[in-house]
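Format notes (please read before filing issues)

Several people have asked whether sequences and structure tokens are stored in separate files. They are not. Every record keeps both together, in the order shown below: the sequence lines, then the token lines. Line labels are part of the format and must not be stripped during preprocessing.
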Amino acid sequence: MTTFELGYRPFAAAPTGLQVDVTLVGGVATVRLSGELDVCTGRRLLDVADVVSGLPGLWLLEIDAGELSFVDGAGVSALLTALDSAHVAGLRARLTGRSSALRHVLGLVNVGARLSDHALN
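Then the structure lines:
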């Protein structure tokens, strides 16, 4: 198992910003998100997903959003884009955790079914 921090901090985010941890086991990369996924932090998820999707030998990208404390519409867009980008890179991708904050905003923007499709791929 390999764990690494990409060290990318695009904004001088508040201490409660987005935390991203990546774990690689075999051909599976798990991206664990905690904190806030929003208009100010979504770019970090996209950058991490792009780097991870380009790793050799990878066949699955899992995004675990179970520890997110806040998500806005831009955060949902970042999740969808990260999952779609993995598919374009030839990977399977799925969302493995949904915090109450994410479930709340998914209910508001009505994209829960689209994210469920990713869970099956």
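For reference, the curators noted about this record: The first helix runs from residue 42 to 53. Residues 7-15 have pLDDT under 50 and may be disordered.
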